[in-house]
Design a protein that fits this description.
Largest sheet of chain A: 4 strands, mixed
CATH topology of the largest domain in chain B: Glutathione S-transferase Yfyf (Class Pi), Chain A, domain 2
Oligomer: heterodimer
CATH architecture of the largest domain in chain A: Up-down Bundle
Number of domains of chain B: 2
Distance between the termini of chain A: 26 Å
Number of helices of chain A: 8
Radius of gyration of chain B: 17 Å
Helix content of chain B: 40-55%
Radius of gyration of chain A: 17 Å
Helix content of chain A: 40-55%
Largest interface: A-B, 32 and 32 residues
Shape of chain B: globular
């Protein structure tokens, strides 16, 4: 069995869950809820960067970095690969990096919002926030060229957008609206329609481990 | 020509510089010195996340995210591959992720050292420094398998260590109240990593590249 560590959130299905749902490898997995900001949950001992998601193989070998974990799981099934082999694989990796960064930039703003109001660093916020709308705009321009078949960049993008949908407005609120009250769908009709269509796929709405406590 | 936006820094060798040296691609690359903080507008037309390194191929197709650009360039030469294909590649990607991540974590420690003392965040410094130290421990384990040729994880790890090693005196001078000492020696207790580093650091691929503009 491999151990999958991730942070369950109520009402949210992580990209690692969507990948496992797609691959149909639940029977090979045990699931562990980990808060990456806690230090007594065993995570730092297996991943020096203390990030989730990550997996530990049956022999204890750790694989971390979300994209690394996704790619390993993608090697375990016989369906069409999410890391589609061929000449466009590097472009796909670039899109995956960009979709992953959307999530990371949100997290940076979230962490900053947890600081006391008088300790926040506005230049930092001003530097990171614009990366989110710029990236969304680029995906709006690219979405028509996304392949019909699902791939890993699309899976990750769905995961990032689903997170931004409910949480970015809350972070704006916590930051006293020092970032625009931004909804990612505004001005991006193609991306919005694509997202709604993809979200009809149950891989994006079915938790792999409903018994885990979410936050 | 391939265009590469990167940030040359004193006493540091970027992995993109080492990679261009290692692969013999220098004559095909136009190296553009870019400060991503002050010159993000130069990057924004090519990458929404305005990070370095970012590369453009002859058609203007962008490659960003360091590991993405490294892999693109690794496909352009005929020497032994830095991303060797095969079943172990996924484990190499994990090692690369760590070496890349350690750079980012340490950069945040560096960032704190540049804050006025009253603005520093002790919890953030402690957290990021612990990740740096733990990362060294895992690199020491990884180095046990680094007995043959160079690969992308090793190349990245050499550059991360150069970065940390050269910045420690100034960071330690600022952050010693947080237990970070200017004379911190990552080699202590990590003999495998130390021996591996001593073997690779003198390699001329770990030399700076003069920017074209």
């Amino acid at each position: 069995m491999m151990k999958v560590r991730f942070s369950p959130f109520v009402g949210y299905v992580h990209t690692i869950e969507a990948v496992i749902n797609y691959a149909g490898v639940h029977a090979q997995c045990t699931f562990v809820a980990n808060d990456p900001f806690e230090t007594d949950n065993g995570l730092p001992e297996v991943n020096p960067l203390s990030t989730v998601p990550m997996i530990e193989l049956a022999d204890g070998t750790p694989l971390y970095g979300g994209p690394v974990a996704y790619e390993y799981i993608d090697g375990l099934h016989a369906k069409p690969k999410l890391f589609t082999p061929g000449p466009n694989l590097l472009k796909l990796r670039r899109q995956l990096w960009q979709a992953d960064s959307l999530f990371d930039h949100y997290v940076r703003l979230f962490v900053e919002s947890r600081e006391p109001a008088d300790k926040r660093r506005q230049p930092y916020i001003d530097r990171f926030f614009p990366k989110i709308p710029r990236s969304l705009d680029e995906f709006e321009g690219e979405v028509d060229s996304f392949p019909a078949a699902l791939d890993i960049a699309q899976v990750r993008l769905v995961g990032s957008l689903a997170f931004l949908e409910t949480r970015l407005p809350k972070v704006a609120e916590r930051l006293d609206h020092k970032i625009p009250t931004h909804h990612w769908r505004e001005g991006r009709p193609k991306l919005s329609a694509w997202f709604d269509r993809r979200m009809m796929d149950p891989i994006f709405t079915t938790p792999v481990a409903p018994q885990l406590a979410g936050r | 020509m391939i265009t590469i936006f990167y940030t040359p820094l004193d006493n540091y060798v970027n992995p993109i510089e080492a990679l261009v040296n290692c692969t013999g691609l220098r004559s095909r690359c136009r190296m553009v010195a870019t400060n991503p903080y002050q010159e993000w507008q130069k990057l924004a037309p090519h990458t929404p996340i305005t990070t370095v390194p970012t590369g453009l191929d002859e058609d203007g197709t962008p490659y960003f995210g360091g590991p993405i650009l490294y892999e693109f360039l690794d496909g352009l030469h005929d020497k032994p591959k830095l991303f060797p294909p095969g079943p172990d590649l996924i484990f190499l990607r994990r090692q690369l992720w760590l070496a890349d991540g350690m750079f980012d974590q340490f950069a945040r420690v560096f960032g704190e050292s540049m804050q006025p003392p009253e603005n520093r965040r002790p919890h953030l410094i402690a957290r990021q420094w612990k990740k740096t130290l733990s990362g060294f421990d895992v690199l020491d384990q990884d180095a046990k398998g680094w007995t043959r040729g160079l690969d992308i994880a090793q190349l990245r790890a050499v550059c991360t260590i150069i970065w940390i090693e050269t910045r420690m005196p100034e960071i330690g001078a600022q952050l010693h109240p947080f237990g970070i000492k200017p004379d911190f020696d990552w080699r202590e207790g990590r003999p495998t990593l130390a021996a591996w580093y001593a073997r690779w650091r003198p390699n001329p691929i770990f030399s700076k590249i003069e920017a074209d503009q």
